[in-house]
Amino acid sequence: MNTTTKYAATALAAALGVTVLAGCGGSEDEASGDAGAGSKTVTLVSHDSFNASDAVLKAFTKETGYKVEVLKSGDAGAALNQEILTKGSPRGDVFFGADNTLLSRALDNGLFTPYEAKGLDRVAADTQLDADKHRVTPVDTGDVCVNYDKKYFADRKLDPPTSFEDLLKPAYKNLLVTENAATSSPGLGFLLGTVASQGETGYQDYWKKLKSNGVKVVDGWEQAYNEEFSGSAGGRKAKADRPLVVSYASSPPVEVLYADPKPTEAPTGVATGTCFRQIEFAGLLNGAENEAGGKALLDFMISKRFQEDMPLNMFVNPVVEDAELPELFTEFGATVDKPATVDPEKIAKNREQWVQSWSSLVVK
Q1: CA 50 to chain CA centroid, nearest Å
Q2: Backbone angles phi, psi at 345, to 5 degrees
Q3: Phi then psi for 221, rounded to 5 degrees?
Q4: How many whole angstroms separate alpha carbon 363 and alpha carbon 340?
Q5: Is 176's pLDDT higher than 90?
Q6: 3-state secondary structure of 293
Q7: How many Å apart are CA 125 and CA 296, to the nearest integer?
Q8: Are 71 and 44 in contact (CB under 8 A)?
Q9: Rg of the Cα trace of the chain?
Q10: What is the pLDDT of residues 321-355, one digit of tens each?
Q11: What average pLDDT does this structure show over 133-159?
């Protein structure tokens, strides 16, 4: 989710920096040592929002003998940029966090060694965007959507927006905050959602109207959601005054999970007609010192055990078709049946132009 990134919702729970997540199995000597040929450490380079339970990572160690070191490197774009700068001499063995909005940059720079992960036949076909070459493996999906503060709209007896078109209505003037599409993964996802819904010739006019209707743009998700959005716990503490924010379809369950006491209903809702589907990938880094460990980790990341662990750790959806969602997601999360999408080749060809046009219209 990111980015964080989408990775953004996890900022509520995950710590930053380099974390060694050691599991059981194997002797202390076997589990130690520098990464490299024969090493029992496999290094996962990721955006800040990667998170997995200790029990699941210990299970990986028990099954394979490898412990996982996670090197967190900022939001999705920043983490990817660092790998591009060090390509051929990567900082780790596997990279996680390139999504469909940024995938072409990773592939065009030759970051990954092709590898067909075991269990890929159980992964939803529509997430396998590199199925012919297997340079990356789909790991999760998430939907970037406008979230709304239920209390704000109930108090005013005003229906919340349900679509991109609704956001242009006078009733919602000065209510929406979004992230900068040039610096934020959800901001870019929302821009691509408007391209999908309004067309390549219509999205600019749409943003002109949205700007006239008082949209506020901030640098990233953390500021938008936790400082500007009145429906979040952080926003309420900051006395935020924007009841609409670009976030994720999985944000309402987060508000429930971390609330004390637990509410019977999520305080936020999702405008499901404003959603853009993100798909996150992992890949074996070209030049990885522990290639065998990297392959084992990719296999594990699409195992049912890891996939079912993700929703309450990274607040994303599994790509494995037999993985089950936790009750918190099914009860409080939004179901997005028809998210907006843009063909990856079209994103690769036009992304920079779309972002530049957006910046000139909305930010400058």
Answers
A1: 9
A2: -65, -35
A3: -65, -45
A4: 24
A5: yes
A6: helix
A7: 21
A8: yes
A9: 20
A10: 999 999 999 999 898 989 999 998 899 999 999 99
A11: 97
State the DSSP string of 213-244: TT-EEESSHHHIIIIIBTTSHHHHHTT--B-E
Q: pLDDT at position 38, please?
A: 63
If you search the block for the tokens 């159980």, which residue do you land on? Answer: 122
H helices within the chain, ranges in order?
A: 54-64, 76-85, 103-108, 150-155, 185-198, 203-212, 221-223, 233-237, 251-257, 291-301, 304-309, 311-314, 327-332, 344-358
Joined tokens for residue 151: 């209390």
Sorted by sequence, the CB contacts under 8 Å of residue 209 that are 6+ apart come out as 168
- Quick check: 25 pLDDT over 80? no
| Cβ atoms of 99 and 281 closer than 8 Å | yes
Choose the weakest-confidence range: 29-38, 217-226, 252-261: 29-38
For the four alpha carbons of 304, 252, 227 and 244, in that order, the dihedral sign comes to: positive
Q: Quick check: 112 and 97 in contact, CB under 8 A?
A: no
Do you find a cis peptide bond into 4, omega within 30 degrees of 0? yes
Decide: 70 and 44 in contact? Cβ < 8 Å. yes
Q: How far is CA 101 from CA 40, 275, 308, 339, 351, in A?
A: 33, 14, 24, 14, 8
The helix/strand/coil state of 308 is: helix
Q: What sign for the dihedral angle of Cα 34, 39, 40, 43?
A: positive
What are the residues whose beta carbons fall under 8 Å from the beta carbon of 272, sequence distance 6 or more?
145, 162, 249, 334, 335, 336, 337
Sign for the pseudo-dihedral over CA of 169, 173, 176, 179: positive
The strand pairing partners of 139, in sequence order, are none
Region class of 65: left (phi > 0), else alpha (psi between -120 and 50), else beta = left
> Which pLDDT score, from 0 to 100, does residue 37 have?
52
Helix (H, G, I), strand (E, B) or coil at 4: coil
* Percent of the chain whose predicted confidence (pLDDT) is above 90: 77
Question: If residue 318 lies in a helix (H) or strand (E), which one and from where to where?
Answer: strand 317-318
Tokens representing residue 85 in the block: 């700068």
Q: Report the alpha-carbon distance of residue 147 to residue 271 in Å, rounded.
A: 6
SS3 207: helix
pLDDT digits (tens, 9 = 90+) for 228-240: 999 999 999 999 9
The amino acid present at 103, given as its one-letter code, is L
